[in-house]
Design a protein that fits this description.
Elements: H1 2-10, E1 13-17, H2 20-27, E2 33-36, H3 44-53, E3 57-61, H4 73-82, E4 86-89, H5 92-100, E5 104-110, H6 114-118, H7 120-127, E6 131-135, H8 140-149, E7 154-157, H9 163-171, E8 176-179
Parallel strand pairs: 1-2, 1-8, 2-3, 3-4, 4-5, 5-6, 6-7, 7-8
Helix pairs in contact: 4-5, 5-7
Length: 188
């Protein structure tokens, strides 16, 4: 698991893929990590298999995969039938289960106001994720604040659309960024 976590240290940009066309381009990109933001329980095993065959780490977004429920058994399905490296979710209970069964976990948090920022520590404590993904990813001041207050490595995502956004997030302390912007999947 430590070896897989170290991949985040050397991959500043994560390809967040939202359809099969993007997956094809992500597989050909320099990105070593893919976040699947689409798929169903019928298609996700084959999609992840393609990513893993290309030497990429594959993370399944439990909340966005059609047919997966908000029940903890979704994590078991991803481990036993999908064979993903990890999962992403906004639901601490799902991440607790995923972590308990050996999957890497990414807690995705939408910071929209001071209340959501204040509840962040409670969410982290509820599931002890391996990584934290802050949304939106274009708020360096908040990224810096979160990085100072938590020991969980931070990924930023959402609205990241150019190299300046990537460098701002990384300079603020984020370990990497996730983006669907294909132009950022190369040469960053």
């Amino acid at each position: 698991m430590e070896e897989k976590l170290s991949m985040f240290e050397v991959n500043p940009v994560i390809a967040a893929v939202k359809d099969e066309g993007q997956l094809e381009r992500a597989l050909a990109s320099d990105c070593g990590i893919l976040f699947f933001l689409f798929g169903s329980i019928c298609s996700i095993p084959a999609l992840v298999e393609r990513a893993r065959a290309a030497g990429k780490l594959a993370f399944v977004h439990l909340d966005l995969t059609q047919g997966l429920s908000s029940k903890e058994v979704s994590a078991d399905f991803v481990r036993d039938y999908v064979h993903a490296d990890g999962v992403i979710s906004t639901r601490p209970a799902l991440l607790r289960r995923a972590r308990a069964i050996g999957l890497l976990t990414v807690l995705r948090v939408f910071l929209v106001d001071s209340l959501s920022l204040a509840s962040l520590v409670k969410q982290i404590d509820a599931c002890t994720p391996d990584l934290l993904e802050l949304m939106p990813g274009v708020m360096p001041k908040i990224i810096r604040q979160v990085c100072r207050t938590t020991r969980v490595p931070v990924i930023t995502g959402g609205l990241v659309s150019d190299k300046e956004d990537v460098f701002s997030a990384l300079s603020a302390g984020a370990q990497c960024v996730s983006t669907t912007c294909e132009a950022l999947w190369r040469d960053v």
